[in-house]
């Protein structure tokens, strides 16, 4: 998800396509469209939602193709897999560091832009001697729509 300009998004798409080529991945129009969509969307879609979105543009697109492409992108660290509230797997491209705010009632996920909390990783490293690769932080609350339902 993003606050970025179209040219920045295009650059991210090109860079990732280039990386995939280096990894020996064949870049089809469908794969390119899936990657482009996940870079541009703000919605943290599921595989099914990506499929529904792109199906009108590609008659021959299958759910399996979306599934395989998404798995490929996760495996290569290009997108993040999130499992939330509804039990479904959602996908997100981390264009800019952000944390997730989840509505505990409807499961809607919002991006909260905040600098990466590197300090906690440093402290963890010092305390334990581990090599620390990263962390996850999730915020929980009630979205404005659900707040209205309670009023
Ligand atoms: Zn809600
Ligand atoms: Zn996100």
TrEMBL record:
Q: Which InterPro entries match?
A: FUR (IPR002481), Fur_C (IPR043135), WH-like_DNA-bd_sf (IPR036388), WH_DNA-bd_sf (IPR036390)
Official protein name in the record: Fur family transcriptional regulator, peroxide stress response regulator
Q: Has keyword Cytoplasm?
A: yes
> Where is the protein situated, by its record's location annotation?
Cytoplasm
Cofactor binding note: Binds 1 Mn(2+) or Fe(2+) ion per subunit. Binds 1 zinc ion per subunit.
List, in alphabetical order, the GO biological process terms annotated in this UniProt record: negative regulation of DNA-templated transcription; regulation of secondary metabolite biosynthetic process
Q: Which domain of life is it from?
A: Bacteria
Q: Which family does it belong to?
A: Belongs to the Fur family.
Q: Does the keyword tRNA-binding apply?
A: no
* Signal peptide boundaries: none
Needed cofactors: Mn(2+); Fe(2+); Zn(2+)
Query: What coarse category fits the chief subcellular location reported for this protein?
Result: cytoplasm
State the PANTHER family in the record: PEROXIDE-RESPONSIVE REPRESSOR PERR, ZINC UPTAKE REGULATION PROTEIN
- What UniProt keywords apply to this chain's record, in alphabetical order? Cytoplasm, DNA-binding, Iron, Manganese, Metal-binding, Repressor, Transcription, Transcription regulation, Zinc
């Amino acid at each position: 998800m993003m606050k970025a300009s179209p040219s920045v998004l295009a650059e991210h798409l090109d860079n990732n396509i280039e990386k995939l080529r280096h990894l020996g991945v064949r870049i089809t129009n469908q794969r390119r469209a899936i990657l482009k969509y996940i870079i541009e969307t703000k919605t943290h879609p599921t595989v099914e939602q990506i499929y529904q979105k792109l199906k009108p543009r590609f008659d021959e697109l299958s759910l399996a193709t979306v599934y395989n492409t998404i798995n490929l992108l996760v495996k290569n660290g290009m997108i993040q897999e999130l499992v939330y509230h509804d039990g479904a797997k959602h996908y997100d491209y981390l264009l800019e560091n952000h944390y997730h705010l989840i509505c505990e009632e409807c499961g809607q996920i919002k991006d909260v832009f905040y600098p990466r909390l590197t300090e906690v990783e440093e402290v963890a490293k010092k305390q334990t001697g581990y090599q620390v690769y990263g962390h996850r932080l999730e915020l929980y609350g009630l979205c404005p729509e659900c707040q209205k339902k309670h009023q």
